[in-house]
Sequence to fold (541 residues):
Amino acid sequence: LQRDAKGQYLFDLLCHHLNLLEKDYFGIRFVDPDKQRHWLEFTKSVVKQMRAQPPFTMCFRVKFYPTDPAALKEEITRYLVFLQIKRDLYHGRLLCKTSDAALLAAYILQAEIGDYDPGKHPEGYSSKFQFFPKHSEKLERKIAEIHKSELSGQTPATSELNFLRKAQTLETYGVDPHPCKDVSGNAAFLAFTPFGFVVLQGNKRVHFIKWNEVTKMKFEGKTFYLYVSQKEEKKIVLTYFAPTPEACKHLWKCGIENQAFYKLEKSSQVRTVSSSNLFFKGSRFRYSGRVAKEVMESSAKIKREPPEIHRAGLVPSRSCPSITHGPRLSSVPRTRRRAVHISIMEAASSTLGPAHSTPVRSASHGDAFAVPGRSGRAESSERVAVIADENYSPADSVLPTPVAEHSLELMLLSRQANGAPCSIEEEKESEAGTPAAAEAEEAGGELRALCPGAGGLGAAQAEQVNKFVLSVLRLLLVTVGLLFVLLLLLIVLTESDLDTAFFRDIRQTPEFEQFHYQYFCPLRRWFACKVRAVVSLLIDT
Fold:
């Protein structure tokens, strides 16, 4: 990647590789060394946005969830959105009732393994798949029952389409959670959906505000403000506190982009937005893409042969492991099999596919998605409405799952391409990286937590000082500029012969005449006298 290459170049390269035309719904996400998520800005240099050293780790994600995913023009687009929502379901972002959860899981099962076959699918086969953060035996039996009796004959494309139609009706469809706290100190998750702004607390949606009711968003430090104008001219301001200023800025930028994408009619209506009421202070940001209406109009004009789709179900899935661990490509020639595997690993698994669905079990929330034992399943089987935990806690899902170590990924790819069986344990190990690396990272984190050090603290203080100095300089420049403009206007009014209606009205006011004769004329005579004195002094010397 060239040092001056823009984000748009990298994104177009990736979409060309995936043969994707309806690309405006997607984006590239990365995590900086401070574990803060960012969307890659397409108008800026890729290298300048990265604070880490190369090679850079990025994730291909759905950035703007389609308002109606079933209305997408091409099957390849629907498939990628399907993979993202499937990942959301596994990470506990897509909350639903048990009946809806069973139907969604059955659609995934039908899309991955096809019709139920008693010879291939023994009793309890659905338990070998991990669809949600928690399972119960009752739920697994319901999934298998729907898969056997209701979905027979559906192709993968049909199952994925039905999955999207069902997921779109759920309240948490399109939720990308941002952890925050309200003014009372209660934990909350803020999110932007195709339909508006959402606040989730304790497994419930406590606020839903449509996009046309949101009048303004701004932030100051860790504080995020949402200005809402509802019916009867009722205006309210919602205030939330992010963990860090960087997280708050990321939340604000996501809100600006989502509002522009879903609310505006044309991209020409997009304006640069400031995070502060004072134009010389704060951050400025501008959404650079097309809006939803333009994307749908452009999609309707697509006329080409549907591209071939290599579904990730052909390779043993990590988040939803296949029943047989060996590759299912025995009918494909070995050279073609390798090409198919490479296409899947690069175009699907390393982007939206289930290969990155399994959360890394870290020291902070490593057991957040641990599958409970049979006793735990029996207890949770009595729950009726909730699949996720008691409290809405996406945990690892607030960070994109790290990409597997390069060497381990190559080893896994070569083993699959050569037809060797690949165990689930190896796949999990490749997700988490080597134990030594994990221990070193954990030790480094503890050391940084115990010893903040003068380097990190000094850098933070220096950054704050630099921001303050820049704000002061900006204020001075703006003040000088305004004074200069006023001086030019004054000279034009008093010295020029322009006789326009605007100038004539000003000159005829009593205030201007008083200013002109009592202040300006004496000042001009004094200034001219001083200039003549200086000139004569220079001539004499």
User: Anything to note?
Assistant: The longest strand covers residues 223-230. Residues 314-457 have pLDDT under 50 and may be disordered. Residues 359 and 396 are 6 Å apart (CA to CA).
